[in-house]
């Protein structure tokens, strides 16, 4: 069913939009087919505050390549609420992963645990990077390297040094 829905969203975009816009629309159609929109979402270009708590819900090897500056690794497969027990339950928290699926699941757990201001970064670090926002390496230096999660997913990164 999802592949049928993708066909109806992606094929028309291939016909009627300029190449960059077409790829972005196809990427968003893919995301929308995978996430449930169960938590508040925020896009990279909507974030204006700097005092946000960033939580990275990717695998350790992804986080080690690059991350959003100041992000705390929490993972996905082994995420435990106790790993963030020092974060105020009313703090603004933005959770991200590659495209937003894993981070949505972690954000749901945070809300169930009583965190009141949790958001999922729509499009994840891929859309963050593609929107011209910086990512940093493990030393805090700006980098063009982004973990592609897998070869079929890395195609959604623009002008990055995709690492697998």
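^ structure tokens above, recovered residues below v
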């Amino acid at each position: 069913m999802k592949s049928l829905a993708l066909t109806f969203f992606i094929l028309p975009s291939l016909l009627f939009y300029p190449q960059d816009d077409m790829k972005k629309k196809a990427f968003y159609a893919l995301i929308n087919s995978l996430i449930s929109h169960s938590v508040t979402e925020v896009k990279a270009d909507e974030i204006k505050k700097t005092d946000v708590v960033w939580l990275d819900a990717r695998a350790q090897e992804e986080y080690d390549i690059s991350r959003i500056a100041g992000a705390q690794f929490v993972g996905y497969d082994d995420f435990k609420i106790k790993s963030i027990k020092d974060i105020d339950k009313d703090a603004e928290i933005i959770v991200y992963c590659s495209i937003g699926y894993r981070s949505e699941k972690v954000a749901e757990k945070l809300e169930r645990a009583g965190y009141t201001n949790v958001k999922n970064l729509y499009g994840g670090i891929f859309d963050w990077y593609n929107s011209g926002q910086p990512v940093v390496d493990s030393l805090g230096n700006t980098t063009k390297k982004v973990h592609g999660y897998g070869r079929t997913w890395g195609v959604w990164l623009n002008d990055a040094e995709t690492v697998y």
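The beta strands are 41-42, 53-56, 72-73, 93-96, 118-121, 135-136, 142-143, 145-147, 161-163.
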